[in-house]
């Protein structure tokens, strides 16, 4: 069993930066891929980024070159550094772990993930 707790959200002006954290419990967390998703009001939850335990990471086109996902397995924490924020980045951001799926790109599907955090609000003002 893994529990995920996000933090670091808040209100920021356009062009600013935030760093989100996803702290996890569970001895096997380091072996899981961990993703970030976001959901704006009235919209579906969408993929932001994912990182496997070592190496591979993917980003949504909308955040590529602005967001960076990283993890510190020793601290059981995954981070999402968000730079050059835009008003359209406003959403509740969720971290998720352990995508159990096969097939190209399945890591981008919310239904693939077993564990979810409660979310943290990010608001970007124009």
* Large-scale geometry: globular
Poorly predicted ranges: none
Secondary-structure-based class equals mainly beta
pLDDT averaged over residues: 94
From the alpha-carbon coordinates, what is the Rg to the nearest angstrom? 14 Å
Helix content: under 10%
β-strand amount: over 45%
Give the termini distance in whole angstroms: 40 Å
User: What's the order of the H and E elements?
Assistant: EEEEEEEEEEE
Oligomer: single chain
Q: How many strands appear in the DSSP assignment?
A: 11
Give the biggest beta sheet.
Answer: 7 strands, mixed
How many H/I helical runs? 0
Considering the chains and any ligands shown, give keywords for the structure.
126 residues, mainly beta
Polypeptide structure, described:
It is a single chain. With 126 residues, the protein is mostly beta strands. It has no helices and 11 strands. It has strands at residues 3-7, 10-13, 18-25, 34-39, 46-51, 57-59, 67-72, 77-82, 91-99, 113-116, 120-125. The strands form 2 sheets. Strands 2, 4, 5, 6, 9, 10 and 11 form a 7-stranded mixed beta sheet that branches. The chain has a 4-stranded antiparallel beta sheet with strand order 1-3-8-7, with no helix packed on it. The radius of gyration is 14 Å and the shape is globular. The termini are far apart. The mean pLDDT is 94.
What are the SSEs and their pairings?
Layout lengths: L2 E5 L2 E4 L4 E8 L8 E6 L6 E6 L5 E3 L7 E6 L4 E6 L8 E9 L13 E4 L3 E6 L1
Parallel strand pairs: 2-11
Antiparallel strand pairs: 1-3, 3-8, 4-5, 4-9, 5-6, 7-8, 9-10, 9-11
């Amino acid at each position: 069993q893994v529990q995920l707790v996000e933090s670091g959200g808040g209100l920021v002006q356009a062009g600013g930066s935030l760093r989100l954290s996803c702290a996890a419990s569970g001895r096997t967390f380091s072996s899981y891929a961990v993703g970030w998703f976001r959901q704006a009001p009235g919209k579906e939850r969408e993929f932001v980024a994912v990182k496997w335990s070592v190496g591979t990471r993917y980003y949504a086109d909308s955040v590529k070159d602005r967001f960076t996902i990283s993890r510190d397995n020793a601290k059981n924490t995954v981070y999402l550094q968000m730079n050059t924020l835009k008003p359209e980045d406003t959403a509740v951001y969720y971290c998720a772990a352990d995508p159990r799926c096969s097939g190209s790109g399945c890591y981008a599907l919310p239904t693939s993930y077993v564990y979810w955090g409660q979310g943290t609000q990010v608001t970007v003002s124009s």
